[in-house]
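step: validate -> pass
step: tokenize input -> pass
step: predict -> running
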Amino acid sequence: MTGDRHRVVVTGLGVVTSIGTGVDAFAAGLRAGRSGAKPITAFDTTGFAYSNACEITDFDPGAWITEQSPDGLGRAAQFAVAASRMAVADAGLTEEQVRGVRSLVSVGTTDGESRDLDHLTGLQVTGGDDVLDAVVARRVWPGRLSAGIVRELGLEDVETVTVPTACAAGNYAVGYGYDAISSGDVEMALCGGADALCRKTFTGFYRLGTIAPDVCRPFDADRQGILTGEGAGILLMESLESALARGARIYAEVLGYGLSCDASHPVAPDRDSIARCITAAHRNAGIDAADVDFISAHGTGTKANDVTEVGAIRQVFGDELPRTVSIKSMIGHTMGAASALASAACALALRDGFIPPTVNHRTTDPECAVDCVPNEAVDADLRVVQNNGLAFGGNNAVLVLGRWDTATDAAPVPTAA
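step: predict -> pass
step: emit ->
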């Protein structure tokens, strides 16, 4: 980074997942290799041969949403608002402090409020075009995922963005926040992603033949596909100067990110495009591939994704691959929340010195031969981690985080020009 650009750090995390809500519960779930897989209760699965997902069954929106009616928000927006409140509290900030600075709210999503669209479509199918649930119809707008956060926290001097780049949207949103803080446009950013389990997405992946019948097994020779999931991950980011001035606890520094869009196929990943995205992220972060201690892969557990992604990683890293894991084996594919929750996991890994496992693993596929940290977390001295987010339409976003070392008052020293 050159000139007057600010260094950017993560000082607060908010997470809602099927393996734990809140930072401590999520961290414990990652370390334990907990699985959120269970039979779907969110909608009727009659007619499907199998119907597991990583559904959240213990979320109480009223515990977090206090300045507006939870019923005025769809489930994805409820997750996003709750995670933002958690992130603010986790950062040691009061609502008054948050309201007092120029800020950004950037939330990525794949489905928006498709769960509500499922409901409205069902009403029309059974009752005709004249049947409408007005309360649900009003909350369908996907902009409420970010606008709901602004309203809940009472933000005024704020830019509000909802990023619809599918399953890489969380990293896109975090990258947007990184640029806004590093350039000095804002002082604080709440960035991440949110999505709710819905019939539309489950059915779409099922028809593509990419839903696993039981659990998700990334990189495994017997992998059979994804499990859909839901939740939200929000990172509170600020400039390093701001964090140090208020004595904030720092999870990690955002070193940089890379984006690519090949648009070569609606659903099939492109190896060369992913490799370009990884290289762009390293260049933006000022690191070499050899500096990366582990990779949080997109790792969906489908035949095509895992082979292609590992091929792209090998294209950049050569034969010496860092450990490469997928937390989707635990929390499922949470769509727009996926890379945001993985970013939160990476920040926790840097702070606590561990690599989360890829669970449900039995035998590594020779075509995607990586050390996926099978089934049990490992302790590790981490300096730099890479988080891959890949999406339909060739939308790719790779984020690089570094450990903040309070002893030396510095982040990892870049080795690349």
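step: describe -> The first helix runs from residue 23 to 32.
step: cleanup -> pass
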